[in-house]
């Protein structure tokens, strides 16, 4: 289980996360919605240990990400797909995907490369193994980012606004891949502005507002009319996103 308990994160005098509680069971897809600046991406960065907590605790299968030794184990169980791809420009697609399995998991090279090729085939990029990131479109680079994360065989996949830098056609390609992952039971925490897509693939919807978790509800319940009546801010957010 991935557990976020009373987590607070400050940047100077500004509190970005304020007492957030969240638990994700294996096999669940949980989407995190909220306006820009609500703390969504910071939550992901705290879970993968890129930001130090100011209060609270995060554990991945009981490994505390605040403890260096535990963080190494936690990162073997989770993987992150970033908003801006974060591929190494001097490495080929194959090298980008196999780097962490070789260095972190200590996989034999032949095993890591075979897994990478299989993943590339699954996302329609079997012919791009020797290409460099600069030779790829944005959608292709994001597909490589997803392959790189999946190459770690993670129990938990963290997705941080993975379509925000893509045009509509590329967005559709990436979302189709994520939908397939959701159907296979991949555990995902999905930070997104893609409201209707989140509605289709999620077991639960979490809504953050000013760093606080406003609601954590089953997907059907989140989109029910009474939620909008009880939480006008959510109704306002959904109305705006649908117009956009």
How would you write the strand order of the largest sheet? 6-7-8-3-9-10
Average of the residue pLDDT scores: 91
Output the radius of gyration.
Answer: 18 Å
Distance between the termini: 35 Å
Helix and strand composition category: alpha/beta
Name of the CATH first level? Alpha Beta
Q: H/E element string? A: EEEHEEHEHHHEHEHEEHHH
Number of helices: 10
Strand count, sense and barrel status of the largest sheet are: 6 strands, mixed
Question: Which parts are unreliable, with pLDDT below 50 for 5 consecutive residues or more?
Answer: none
The CATH superfamily is known as: P-loop containing nucleotide triphosphate hydrolases
What percentage of the residues does DSSP assign to strands (E)?
25-35%
Q: Roughly how much helix do the residues carry, as a percent range? A: 40-55%
The geometry reads as globular
Tally of domains = 1
Strand segment tally: 10
């Amino acid at each position: 289980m991935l557990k976020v308990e009373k987590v607070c994160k400050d940047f100077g005098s500004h509190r970005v996360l304020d007492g957030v509680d969240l638990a994700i069971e294996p096999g669940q897809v949980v989407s995190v919605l909220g306006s820009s600046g609500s703390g969504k991406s910071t939550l992901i960065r705290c879970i993968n240990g890129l930001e130090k907590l100011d209060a609270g605790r995060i554990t991945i299968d009981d490994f505390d990400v605040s403890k260096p030794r535990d963080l190494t184990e936690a990162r073997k169980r989770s993987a992150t797909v970033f908003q801006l791809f974060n591929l190494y420009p001097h490495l080929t697609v194959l090298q980008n995907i196999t780097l962490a399995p070789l260095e972190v998991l200590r996989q034999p090279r032949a095993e890591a490369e075979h897994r990478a090729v299989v993943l590339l085939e699954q996302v329609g990029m079997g012919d791009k193994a020797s290409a460099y990131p600069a030779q790829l479109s944005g959608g292709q680079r994001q597909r490589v980012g997803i392959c790189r994360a999946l190459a770690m065989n993670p129990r938990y996949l963290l997705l941080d606004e993975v379509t925000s830098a893509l045009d509509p056609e590329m967005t559709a390609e990436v979302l189709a891949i994520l939908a397939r992952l959701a159907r296979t039971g991949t555990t995902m925490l999905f930070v997104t502005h893609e409201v209707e897509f989140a509605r289709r693939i999620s077991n639960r919807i979490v809504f953050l507002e000013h760093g606080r978790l406003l609601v954590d509800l089953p997907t059907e319940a989140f989109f029910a009319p009474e939620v909008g009546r009880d939480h006008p801010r959510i109704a306002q957010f959904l109305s705006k996103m649908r117009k956009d």
